[in-house]
Amino acid sequence: MSQFLDKLNLRPQEKRLVVLGSAVLFVVLNFWLVWPHASDLRNARAKLSAGRAQLRTFQTELDRAEDYALRLRELEGQGAGILPEEEQSTKLIAQIQSQASRSGVSCNSIRPQTRGARAEPTEFFEEQSISVTLNPTGPDEILDFLLALASGNLVVRVKELDLKPDPSQTKLTGSMRLVASFQKNAPKPGSAAQLPGSPGRKS
Fold this sequence. Notes:
Layout: H1 2-7, H2 12-34, H3 40-63, H4 65-76, H5 85-103, E1 107-112, E2 125-137, H6 139-150, E3 156-165, E4 172-183
Antiparallel strand pairs: 1-2, 2-4, 3-4
C-alpha cells in the first residue's frame, strides 16, 4: 500500500486522506455486499438438514409399502359374515324399532335415507343413515333410547337432532338422524373401478 502511494507522489496529508477514504470504502462495500449474506451458509445448512430428515421419513414409509399392501389385502378379505348392502338398513331399522319399544319412545316414522357418494376404494366402512320422526315422548325415554343405541352391538350415533316441546310443554317431539357404520363388502372380481388412465376407461 505504501509503495503504491509513493508512486503517486502524494504529500503525507494526502496519503492519510487516501488511506482513510479506502478504509471507509472497504467498510461500505462490506456493509452493502458481504454482511447481508453472512447467514446464507447457516440457512443453507439448516435447509439441507431438514431435507435430509424429510427424505429419511419418506424412505421409512416407502420401506413399509409392502406391509401396507399386505394389511390392505387382509382387510379386504375380511368379508365373511358381513351383511349384504341391502340388508344393512333393514337390520338397523329393526334394532331402532326394538329399542324404541323397550325405551317407551313413540316414533311416527323410521326410514332409511338415500346414501350419498360411495366411499373411496381405500375405505373399509360406509355409513347407513336412518331418519326418525318422533311423536311426543318424555325426555327420559329419549335419553334412555339414545344411550341404549350407542352401547349396543351395532353402535349407532346421532348425526342430527332437532327436538322441541310439544303443545303440552311436558314432552318432546321432533326428528333425528341416526347413523351406523358397516364394513364394506369385498369387491367382486372384475367389478373394481378402473384407475385413471387404465385401458378401457372412458374419458
